[in-house]
Each structure stands twice: as structure tokens, then as C-alpha cells.
Amino acid sequence: MPKTKAIKKQEKTTVPQQIEKLRRVLGGLGTDIEEKKGALIALAHLGVKEANEVIADFIFNLNDILVKDLRSWAEIALDEGEFMASVPKNAAEEERMLKESVYQDYLERFAELSGKIEDAEEDIGQRKYEYEVVKRLKKKAKTPDEKEHWDLEEMAHHDILVWEENRKARWEEELETVSSILAEIEAELEDIVN
Length: 194
Fold this sequence. Notes:
The protein is an all-alpha fold. It has 2 domains: about 15-85, Leucine-rich Repeat Variant, CATH 1.25.10; about 90-194, Helix Hairpins, CATH 1.10.287. Helix content is about 80%, strand content about 0%. It has helices at about 15-25, 35-45, 50-60, 70-85, 90-140, 145-194. Helix 2 (about 35-45) packs parallel to helix 4 (about 70-85).
């Protein structure tokens, strides 16, 4: 009979199990530095937030000055782990990350427009007051030259006020559009998560 090699059946471990095993390696008092470096790299390559948290905790608790080299390794592993976590692992994740990126861009635009509208409201209040003051001064004009001066000032202040109001209206219209897009993306992202 031919000799057969025994095939060692490898156990499949889940990511949480792998993280726990590597956490024990990092926390082991008898574990040498090279094993800890290997555990740090393995955690980084898992590319998940939980693994990065283990590395960050390890760095935080690493106080021994003799392991400065290990701290550097841990910091590099954390950087790499954060990068790996940001890289999509399949087409569905890539699509989700793209949608999240677009969503974030629109959130920033929403905040920017909201701030502009708030500032415009204050500016419009000031322009209205200035316009009213100019109209009162025009009524007080005694000479034709003064009246002509205040006529021009009134037209200029009116134009500035109208321009400010129109600009605010454009921003409000754009904010409505951005809000609708955000709501649509949010609903789609919620469907992906659930």
C-alpha cells in the first residue's frame, strides 16, 4: 500500500478569535520582542478597527524605555492597520466606501451653506438698517445737491440689499438640493448596513 501523508486539517478562526490570540501574544510576559512584532504586523494586516484598537492600547500601555524599538514597530503597525482598514476588501465594500465619501462631501457642503446663510441673514439685517438710515437722511436733505447725493446712496444701498437677498436665496435653494441628496444617500447607506 502506498504511504499517505496525514493532512493536518487547519482550523478556520474568526477575526475576533485571531485578534484575541494576538492580544495574548502582545500581553504575554514571556513573549519575546520578535513575536510581539509579528503579532503587531498580523493585527495591522487584519485591517479592522478592533485590531487597530488592540495596537493603540498596546502603545498606550507600553511604558518600558527598553522597548523603544517595539513602540516604533507598534506605531508603524497602527498606521498600516488604519490604512488597511480604509482599503475596500471587495466590490460591495468599495461601493459603500465611495457612497460614504460622497455623503461626507455633501455633509461638508451642507455645513458650509448653512454657515453662509446664517452670515447672510446677519448681513441682510445690517443692509436693511443702513438702507433705512439712508432713506431718512434723504428726506432730511435741504439742497438739490444733498438730495441728489442721497438719491444715489439710496439706489446703491438698495442694490446691495437686493444682491445680498438674492445671494442668500441661491444658497437656500442649493441647501435644499444638498439636503435632498443627503437624504437619498443616507437611505441607501442605511439599506446597505441593514
